[in-house]
Give the backbone structure.
Amino acid sequence: MKCPNCDSENNDSAKFCKKCGTSLKNIENASASTSNNNTTKIAIVVLIIIAVVLAGTLIYIYGNNLHSQQANTQVSDNNDNSNIGANSVESSSSQAKAQSPSMKIKGGSFSTGSELADKTYASIFVGSEHSGEKVTIQIYYSRDGNTLNNGNMVPNHVDSSGYIHVRSADSYRYYPDHAKINLYDESGNKLLDSKEVSLSATSGTQNF
């Protein structure tokens, strides 16, 4: 170590300067203190580096877990939305079938007996896809432009073959030569379809 007084070099273990005799004890203590301070600073820097690395690792792991959870949540939401959409379509389909907005008169037949005292029967075809649905039916019969009945509104249903069968409430003095069919929904408030049919004024079955 160097003497602070004469700047001479001395052994590290020397207590006094070999040239001027100045005490070297304070220099030794200062050197030891400096060494300790340097060691402390190095330890602090190492601890800071370790803390930064650990914090980065934890953030990375947390970020990956959060991303994975969000992805799983997104998939779950998509599945739920798909189920909701499917249920909505099914519900809409059932509601549409119940209301039967597309029910139309596609054909059918009228039958009268050989006597004027017989009632007139009508079989109206709307399609087997409407099997079991409830409707209200109204038929006006006429002959030579003269009305034969009051056209009562009759609750009815579609059979398994897609037909609605209804007979007249009364027998007529004349064979009808014209029939007007009004097809309503179950409540009788909504007209689904209407059809006019010309008939031969004779007994028997006539298709339309």
Summary: The CA atoms of residues 86 and 106 lie 31 Å apart.
